[in-house]
Design goal:
single chain, SDR_DHRS6-like, alpha/beta, oxidoreductase activity, binds nicotinamide-adenine-dinucleotide, Rossmann fold, NAD(P)-bd_dom_sf, globular
Amino acid sequence: MSDFEGLKALVTGGASGIGRATAELLAERGAQVAVLDLDPSSVDKPLLAHRADVTDDASVRQAVTAAVAGLGGGLDVLVNNAGIGARGTVEDNPDDEWHRVYDVNVLGMVRTTRACLPHLRASRHAAIVNTCSVAATAGLPQRALYSATKGAVHSLTLAMAADHVREGIRVNCVNPGTVDTPWVGRLLDAAPDPAAERAALEARQPTGRLVSPAEVAGAIAYLASPLSGATTGTALAVDGGMQGLRLRPV
Ligand code: NAD
């Protein structure tokens, strides 16, 4: 039997990158999967696609209701993955930019979790996995705002794990390093010499290569599956050794 046979999952930001790879892996392993995304137009069957903006509470509630109905009722797994990046020091981003990125990266997870909790409580294998980042704890240069949002995601993961452990809902997060997603592709394309920039980025990784979306999806799937039934309140690094090996990150 596959790990997710009979389980129902919802993945935010599931139309691209890490979320897409996760939705596809969960479906391959037997789950019924709904994707919530700002632009779900590229999402194909068997994934169920729902448009939602995680910064809009009504949009999230409507999409979660529709997704759970589309899954035939019930929900076992929530992957809070939708997120956006931000560069710069504290001097570079004005207050409204801090509010905008926090709204997606932190409150987006709060809104989606709030909408999903009543359904998760009814599950016998409830798990939430939040996509955090090495930025939560690594002290990366030029990432003050982004790092602060991911630090908040880390704390939120621990607090949610404590709040819901006796309800049988596990909550964990993954901390990816630099992952080869469309997001990173866009950053590289903006460089004067994208190929040279990619080579430099790869050279800075302990493994000499970027993490693949499938590798992050594998970690998320483990934390979402009954195989990790005794694991809650943890952060799993998926960073090619960036933090554990104490090497200088990007
Ligand atoms: P991506 O840009 O490829 O995909 C992100 C998806 O989220 C997109 O489909 C986008 O439409 C969706 N999204 C963005 N804002 C949204 C909103 N307001 N409402 C609903 N959906 C929204 O990015 P990715 O690289 O796959 O990143 C996914 C997650 O992984 C993010 O939380 C990011 O912080 C985290 N992460 C990425 C990396 C990396 O190197 N790529 C590293 C660490 C952590």
